């Protein structure tokens, strides 16, 4: 811009200048600011809705810069667990018995309870024998020569407050052990009862995710699709989905993992009585645009899925998650119809869960 032009009350647009006494330098600064504002407004107007997550977003996701650059493994397993291993902590400093008893499987819970029950009774039986040969008096027939078994079964009766009366403690030491074991039994059964109640009352989501994600025809384009359904008979409302694409890209010559939040056709549904096919349309704004099966594998792409919903039974919000890697993505397929109308006695809509994972070739076939 020529700064030698005189500044008068009329600017170069032909209107009255808002700064009739402004210097040429100030006029240049104002023009530059207006230009920057126009460029910023233009960039915001053309900015795609599917965006690369910035550093703050990465902190919110919980994946640090080191993981983004160096980890070659999938971030999230199919069962929703993170592919992370903690090292450097002692076992007892990171172990929580209460958390473990709440999260282990039911057979593991009952097995741990039974093993602990046997160990406690075996320990008290050994303690009774340590009190001397006459610590337990018995009139029971058949147990005279099985002193340890007699002490063990007496411990079982004492711990569970049964007390048949055929074996009785004799002496101060044995009666002191009976007192201690009775207290241990009361506390132990109270703890196990509390754990059982907590396990039954803990709100959890049991969602079914389709075995594969699909690249299927969608209107006049393609789309990434996967199917979800509630595996329980309870009702979930206000169910929302968030899908992130993670892949490796070259950034300043360094191969690093980048994250993109995918724009969904519908990011939430009010009710989920049937199945829901989550769809990401592959438009020109999509980071998935022009991707191929080979490029997907080369970039080690991964779809991270987070589902949230409100459980009416527990009146609580529940979450679940999973992910899909390139080997779990099928190209040129669509989901088979899982709905059956009019076959039930009340003419209700039926969801055939045997068709939940079933796919069939897309017609017409994908091109490009």
Describe the structure.
With 368 residues, this protein is α+β, with helices and mostly antiparallel strands. It folds into 3 domains: 1-47, no CATH class; 93-201, Helix Hairpins, CATH 1.10.287.70; 207-361, Immunoglobulin-like (Sandwich), CATH 2.60.40.1400. The chain has helices at 24-46, 55-61, 65-70, 91-94, 97-103, 106-130, 147-159, 172-201, 293-298; strands at residues 136-138, 167-169, 207-209, 213-218, 221-230, 236-251, 254-261, 268-271, 275-282, 302-311, 316-324, 329-331, 333-335, 339-341, 349-351, 359-361. Strands 3, 4, 5, 9 and 12 form a 5-stranded mixed sheet that branches. Strands 6, 7, 8, 10 and 11 form a 5-stranded antiparallel sheet that branches. Helix 6 (106-130) packs across helix 7 (147-159) and helix 6 (106-130) runs antiparallel to helix 8. The longest helix is centred in the middle third of the chain and has 30 residues, at 172-201. It is elongated and about 90 Å long.
